[in-house]
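Supplementary Text 2. Reproducibility record for the structural model of the 569-residue chain.

All settings were left at their defaults, and a single model was retained for analysis rather than an ensemble. We include the record here because the model underlies the residue-level annotations in Supplementary Table 4.
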Amino acid sequence: MAKSLPRLAALAILGLAALNTAAPARADLGVSGPYLAARQASFLSDYRAAAAYYTEALVSDPSNPRLLENAMTALVGLGEVEKAVPIARRIETLGNPDQLANLVLMADQMKQGQFDRVIADLDAGRQTAPLVDGLIRAWAEFGQGRMTDALAAFDAASAQSGIKAFGLYHKALALAAVGDFEGADTIFSGEAEGPLRATRRGVLAHAEVLSQLERNDDAIELIDAAFGTEVDPGVAALRARLAEGDALPFDVIDGAAQGAAEVFFTVASALNGDALDGYTLLYARLAQFLAPKNADAILLSAGLLEAQERYELATEAYAAVPKDDPAFYAAELGRAEAMRHAGDVDGAIETLRGLAATYPDVAIVHVTLGDALRSQERFADALKAYDAAIALFDEPARGQWIVYYARGISHERLDQWPEAEADFRKALELEPDQPQVLNYLGYSYVEMNTNLDEAMSMIERAVAARPDDGYITDSLGWGLYKLGRYQEAVPHMERAAALMPVDPVVNDHLGDVYWAVGRKVEAQFQWHRALSFGPDEAEAERIRKKLEVGLDKVLKDEGAPPLRAANDG
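Retained model, structure tokens:
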């Protein structure tokens, strides 16, 4: 299904953005404290605290438009739409038109089956956004059993500039919901008015339609073309049923309320990445309100909360996907990631271990577990997880490079260099110009003082691919230093320090390069800077020794070759 993002964003954002410019609440004695606390909570996207404080402020000033609007916004963001409904009614009673209040009331009426009221309110002038109003009207007509009027409303929505595909998609869903699978297929296939862009939900809906038409082979072909061979467990299970000859029921939409939920989910999906996460979340939460079991809406809400660093709420959202849902594994992956960001790394690892036991044949689960273990420097355990993932690879694929790269890092940290080198080489075989791998392998060779020509070639290729990456630029400067090309190293190390001004390793390296070219005062300054940025204790002790006796003496005591000017351009 095609997106018209700028157009859709403009249609959807119109009106609701005014929430941020409304007049401030009165700073009365009973409202100023909770109001200020609520403002701060809203700024931090802390929906739970904002909802509590705004509700408290409303006790003292129950007719304040700004408090009403912001309390409602916080409650919807929190996912407590039921509590937002009476506030929306209060806003409407006070005669203050508000887009979100209209959306909340519209969603509540659709959920209650009050389709006639939805249509009457739209006729009376209640407005949200053209796309939403047109599609909700169509689904309300559908709910009233007036299919002819519903199809006309879908056609009217499709006729609006820039949003034709959205109207066609929903019309196809409505046709399928009443058993007109031929009509739905005509739209999904593009025979009616051109192809729709293939979203995940759209592809699965079309596959169910094809199955109802006894065209399972076509459904399988559609799924393979859209998702390839590496599919998630939900899609894999659906494909397997198709291959066995099962007739899949059409269950994407089973009524007008779910159709309305799909409208809100459609808007949220289109806005995602192009509008503020907090704004997009409102549409995703309304979709959840109307269709609580819609795993796609739950996952979208959870991801938006995670993007706003509300990890506790994201964890709760992910946990709302039931275990028997095909999307459960994706929800658990998200929940573990949210837990890890919240600081509960042990909990995240345990969640992933449980998931790996439940889904032993899903490579991404093992990879994610390996990444979590590696982040805790539990490299031996990480290796086992990466081994399990790689054992599931049937055929080499470009995207697998990152798994070999991660396993290679784990081998390298365990001083298993032959195994690490083999994994890095395999990663480059799959993705020859991958700058992270080129840099890591090249830098490792430089540190070991081996394969230096190849190492520098790798690092130079990595720099060319990512000229603004401080770590990679540092590798180039450090490689030149190791080769004794000190003057050449200076500008690269200076650029690395400019790109990463508070990194202790980069500043330490710049100090060494300055010392090598005779700029000893500047070298000492950089070493002091490096110490101030918290290097690990072994590095800190070495830096302190350099400050005390100089780099030449440190190298001599370590048995390292002395500084030399050979090959220095």
